[in-house]
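Re: beginner question about structure tokens

> Can someone show what the tokenized structure looks like for a real chain? I only ever see the sequence side.

Sure, here's an example I had lying around. Input first:
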Amino acid sequence: PGARGRRAEMTLAPLLAASPAIQLHTATALAAFALGLVQLAGPKGRAAHRVLGWIWVGLMAVVAVTAFFIHELRVWGDRSPIHPLAVLVLVSLPLAVVAARRHDVQRHRRVMLGRFLGALLIAGAFTLGPGRLMHAVVFG
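And the corresponding structure tokens:
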């Protein structure tokens, strides 16, 4: 049967065959995405929000650092648009934490929401494009 008659099936095989950096990057990005949804939907300013927030910041730091070890998409030499985004994440996370500690809720919210939308949702959506590893995982 041709490709038309086949159903796309999710498979972890491409991810399991990928480098440890890609595996760790993917796992922490998915965890940060799920935890980010919990943080966005849940009550703010309570102890649970702060504890989960620190976990989210740690996850996002790992996502950003592991991005520097991923070179499959080469746009500028061995670099890609994900690398400047990783720098942005690493610089802005401490700024968002400082904003929260100073009770600058609007700045904290703006930076954290920006990282969630830009670094997880939008950048994550690009990983689903044809020829990308996550496309192979999700669509077979």
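Each token stands for a local structural state, so reading them left to right follows the chain. The chain has a mean pLDDT of 89.
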